[in-house]
Structure formats: structure tokens, C-alpha cells
Amino acid sequence: MKLRSLLLCAALVLQACATAPDEPSDVLVLEDGSLFFGDAAGKGEVQQRLLTQFRQWRGTPYQLGGNSRVGIDCSAFVQQTLSTHFQIKAPRTTAQQLKMGDEIARDAMQVGDLLFFRTGYSTRHVGFYLGDGKFLHASTKVGVTISRLDDLYWRKTFWKVRRVM
């Protein structure tokens, strides 16, 4: 009888472990190990569409001029995301994307706004604002990822915000 109770108890424990809930779909672990809580605060459909794109493309390596899951650059990632999830036709290059929409103040940015960075004398970078000081982009170091705007590099190179949605 004791053996039967022990086996039943062990089976229940193992089943509970095997069916433990996954990480909630709106919680993501970022490249720096921090957590990003998606729509928990009600940021809405734009953020959810951006997070869907992130889940589909996460880890895709950066490739200058790339436009596929084999490799993609920042402006192609923006172009693909706008087309796929928002039915917005965007130009291919960062220089052309700088002319889209309306320029707005940094303190007025909203989820989905395009963020632009001056990363070199003539090089530019672009990504999407996700809220909570985070942005989605195709990074030259880790590919498609979510980064923090308060990171020293991004803080130093931050340039413009454009609203296209």
C-alpha cells in the first residue's frame, strides 16, 4: 500500500512538472538577460504585431543588403515588418525611410514609431519603438533582437523619431 501511494505521488509530481505552463507569450527574455513584458500594460495591437514579427525573425543574422531569413539588415527588417504586419509600403533604405511619416519629439514617441540612430559618419540604423525604453531591430552583432534605449551605445547614437502609423 505504501509503495502504491509513493508511486502515485511520484507520478503526480512528474505530470505536474511535465505540464508546467510555458513562459507567458507576452514575456520575452532580452539579449541582456532582462525581461520584457509585452502587452501586460495594455500597449495594444501595434506592440503585439511587432512582438509577433520578433518571434518569427528572432536571431536571424544581420547581413548588409540582406532581405531574407538567411540574413537581413535593419532597413529591410523595417520594410518587411511594415509590409507584413501593417500593410504599409516602405522604401528599402534607411536614408529613404528617414523621409517617411512625421518627425516627432523623443519624449512623444509611441509604440511602433521608427527610431533612427547615427552609428557612424555616414551610417544610420533604424528600428521600432516597443515601449518601456525598448526597441526592435536587426543588430549587426546579434541579428534581430530587442535592445534597451538606455544602453550607452544606443543613448549616444540616438538621432530621430518618425511616426509612420
Strand order of the largest sheet: 5-10-6-7-8-9
Low-confidence stretches: 3-25
Overall pLDDT metric: 84
Please provide the ordered H/E string of secondary-structure elements. Answer: HEEHEEHHEEEEEHE
How does the helix and strand content classify structurally? alpha+beta
> How large is the count of helical segments?
5
Any idea what the radius of gyration is? 20 Å
- Shape descriptor: globular
Largest sheet: 6 strands, antiparallel
End-to-end Cα distance? 67 Å
- Proportion of residues in helical segments: 25-40%
How many strand segments?
10
Strand content: 25-35%
Give a structural overview.
The chain is an alpha+beta fold and 165 residues long. Helices cover 32% and strands 27% of the residues. The strands form three sheets. Strands 5-10-6-7-8-9 form a six-stranded antiparallel beta sheet. The longest helix is centred in the first third of the chain and has 17 residues, at 2-18. The protein is globular.
Keywords:
10 strands; alpha+beta; two-stranded antiparallel ribbon; disordered N terminus; 165 residues
Short précis:
It is built from 5 helices and 10 strands, in the order αββαββααβββββαβ.
SSE layout and pairings?
Layout: H1 2-18, E1 27-29, E2 35-37, H2 45-57, E3 67-68, E4 71-72, H3 74-86, H4 94-97, E5 102-104, E6 114-118, E7 124-131, E8 134-139, E9 143-148, H5 152-157, E10 158-163
Antiparallel strand pairs: 1-2, 3-4, 5-10, 6-7, 6-10, 7-8, 8-9
